[in-house]
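BUG: 3D viewer hangs when loading the predicted structure for this chain

Environment: internal workstation, default settings.
Expected: structure renders.
Actual: progress bar stalls at 90%.

Input used:
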Amino acid sequence: MGEILRSADMVAVASHQLAQCISGHAWNVDLTMIAVCTNNEVHIYNASPAPSAVWQRLHVLQKHDQLVSGVDWAPVSNYIVTVSHDRNSYVWKLEENVWQPTLVILRINRAAISVKWSPRENKFAVASGAKSVCVCYYEEDNNWWVSKIIRKKHGSTVTGVAWHPNNVLLATTSTDCKCRIFSAYIKGVDSRSAATTTFGEIRFGEQLVQLDLALGWAFGVKWSPSGRSLAYVGHDSTIHFIDDVGPSPIAQTLALRDLPLRDVLFLSEKRLVAGGFDCNPMLFASDDTGTWNFVRFLDEGKTPASDVKASTQFSEAFGKFYGQAKRGVAAESPSSAPGTYHNNCITLLNPLAPPGEQEIRKFSTSGMDGKVVIWDMSTISDALARLGM
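Structure tokens produced before the viewer hung:
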């Protein structure tokens, strides 16, 4: 397997420097535009995943007073939702080539952290620093967006939310080191049949599963395309895979030698990519027995720290600090090594595929270096498929 994967071409096909720091990004349905969070604004570019594409800024969404911490673009309705540390959320609608905002009253007293549309786009979930999750929906009688809040379930800031494909189950991660699954069923919004799941009859806000697998802050929860599996990461450099999600889930934890991860993305039921403080996406795959394993780093231009001998690390560190003391210059960061695409923490991974796609071959990453990088997994995916992974 190693020889096949090492012979694969570089998978990063394009890199775009758009800001000093990016806190989130989202694509429209046909991948012709991208919304990027930069400080307290959202910039919309005429974009394309093609390597030679030139991105041009078309719109600037200005309504938030503080950092815009999350954005999501609904593929069918074409609505954009944004959340910010100013505790507000806006739903943006394109009218006559102008994006018009509608304020959403979240009723939280701490910053909004992230946001995600539900698969049917009739709801969206907002993670917050108020130890709560807001599930927002449109109330046609009053012509506004309202929210119902899942309270008193989290012990600290909610860092991420992820919708199950059934539009009802909602997974969360938190800085209390736990991952949870809740019911986000709302009467009058969801069909009555949606209230019956593998967990039986459910009601809004009911906690169905609590996972205590991480020993550090939990981030980046995502469902597999079928909704049968779940994955999230811990700040203790662990990644957790949960299969057969239900009353008796099966969990597997991988402890990594490298820096902590921040986000994950299922490419298929048996493949997953993750990114974080190593600034280099990592590929994981499941074998025929259902066991998950680390496969490789995707950015081959960078040598991961775990592959460098201790003596070499000491020699390089000593040389850098010796030069710093003698010449009064800053030591070069290892993340700025030539051949790398990201030079700061990767915070978000998004698929470049139609909604509901069972196998994703392209995805994008963004992070604290202000870059959006496009990755093409076609060559590696074909190699893994030949190996049954």
